[in-house]
Design a protein that fits this description.
The chain is mainly alpha-helical and 146 residues long. The chain has 10 helices and no strands. Helix 1 runs antiparallel to helix 2 and helix 1 packs across helix 8. It is globular, with a radius of gyration of 15 Å. The relative contact order is 0.19.
Length: 146
């Protein structure tokens, strides 16, 4: 399951082809939002919602499509890691700290691949009404946006 920069970069890479009919800012906020579960101490199933297809994701409003796309990307990432698990973890230990280290390094590498970070950072000045529906609480959502 990738970390924030990876989710945003993947969303940016596919936005024009699959989601250009949706509001860009709200889609990016949605694809970032599910990992609020970490600081809010929510269960994964409260913020990670499974979509049956890309078409189902495309038919939602922008924020919801982003939330669904986040989980879609998580599933792709997990499938890739699981497929290459034997070779990947033959050189490094398979444990939670190593997985988090991989995600951090991936985000550091990917961060430089996207040049629109100042614009994306401005998106987080907006809190959408839908964000209150996940149980994180108003203060946590505001903190997440900061």
């Amino acid at each position: 399951m990738p970390w924030p920069a990876t989710h945003i970069l993947v969303a940016e890479k596919v936005y024009d082809q699959y989601f250009s009919h949706l509001d860009h800012k709200n889609f990016i906020l949605g694809t970032s939002f599910p990992d609020i579960r970490y600081p809010a101490k929510l269960s994964r199933n409260q913020t990670h919602i499974h979509a049956r297809s890309l078409q189902e994701i495309q038919s939602q409003n922008a924020f919801t499509a982003g939330v669904l796309f986040h989980n879609f990307v998580d599933n792709l990432w997990n499938a890739h890691i699981n497929k290459d698990q034997a070779s990947l973890f033959s050189a490094i230990p398979l444990n939670v700290p190593m997985l988090h280290t991989m995600k951090i390094l991936q985000d550091v590498y990917i961060y430089e691949k996207l040049k629109d970070w100042p614009e994306i950072a401005q998106y987080f000045e907006t809190i959408l009404p839908e964000e209150s529906l996940f149980g994180a609480g108003e203060k946590m959502v505001a903190r997440w946006h900061e």
